[in-house]
Amino acid sequence: MLTEERFGVILSILESRGSVTVTELMKELRSSESTVRRDLNTLDEEGLLTKVRGGAISKRPFSTRDDEVKLRRERNTDEKLTIGKYAASLIKKNDFVYVDAGTSTDLMLDYVTEREAVYVTNAVSHAMKLAGLGCTVFLIGGEFKHTTEAIVGEEAIVSLEKYNFTKGFFGANGITKKNGFTTPEVKEAMVKRKAMESCKCCYVLADESKFGEISAISFGDLEDATIITNKIPKGFLQVKNIKEVDE
């Protein structure tokens, strides 16, 4: 089992039980005691659990599923607007832009002024908003995911294979140094990863609440994108590819 998978199992167990022993994890993960203890040390350092003698206890909720868009739109709106305004200013004439589904990227579109760029997205609402602005926009095909209003799945990945983007703007549910950018659902993670691979420059829009959080599936390493945020947490001050923006 890969390290990321073990982390996911450990945190999922803690979410449901609240605590777990090293012995239980050795059996569940089919791993050695030294491996389990090393994993617990790493997750404790990341602030994702509290390591105790003989095991660990839950410290924070571990995200294994997405909240509905209408709920996420109400969170940290001012911060997302600040981030979105700066992100939109990065789009220039003749750019070929990918816009990932999500509430942060949705708010970014309120500040888009460049009509001579071409946009591709996996979000129906994004496509409608861009078209309403008079932009040229393409919507990729695939399975519609109601919770996040995103197009996902194998067909979406195939759709992305023909594109080479100059810039891509993405959302993330969690960001840690160890696990990079994470999201709760594997189909959406696969689409994000494929789109990032197709971009010359990637930007992840994330308010400060996303740092230190972890979801079930990683879709990129920390160095794969420039992070645009309203405030850099202390633990990330030495990370070079983070841009802090304000009003």
Layout of SSEs?
Layout: H1 3-17, E1 19-21, H2 22-29, H3 33-45, E2 49-52, E3 55-58, H4 69-72, H5 77-89, E4 96-99, H6 103-108, E5 118-121, H7 124-132, E6 136-139, E7 143-145, E8 150-152, H8 154-160, E9 165-171, E10 174-176, E11 180-183, H9 186-197, E12 199-205, E13 217-220, E14 226-229, E15 242-244
Parallel strand pairs: 4-5, 4-9, 5-6, 9-12, 12-14, 14-15
Antiparallel strand pairs: 1-3, 2-3, 7-8, 10-11, 11-13
How does this model look, in words?
- The chain is α/β, with parallel strands linked by helices and 247 residues long.
- It folds into two domains: 3-58, Winged helix-like DNA-binding domain superfamily/Winged helix DNA-binding domain (Arc Repressor Mutant, subunit A, Orthogonal Bundle), CATH 1.10.10.10; 69-244, Rossmann fold.
- The chain is 35% helix and 25% strand.
- The strands form four sheets. The protein has a seven-stranded parallel sheet with strand order 6-5-4-9-12-14-15, sandwiched between helices. Strands 1-3-2 form a three-stranded antiparallel sheet.
- The mean pLDDT is 90.
Backbone CA Rg: 19 Å
What is the terminal-to-terminal distance?
A: 45 Å
Biggest β-sheet strands, sense, barrel:
7 strands, parallel
Helix content: 25-40%
In short:
With 247 residues, the protein is of the alpha/beta class.
Descriptive key words:
single chain, 247 residues, alpha/beta, Arc Repressor Mutant, subunit A, Rossmann fold, three-stranded antiparallel β-sheet, 9 helices
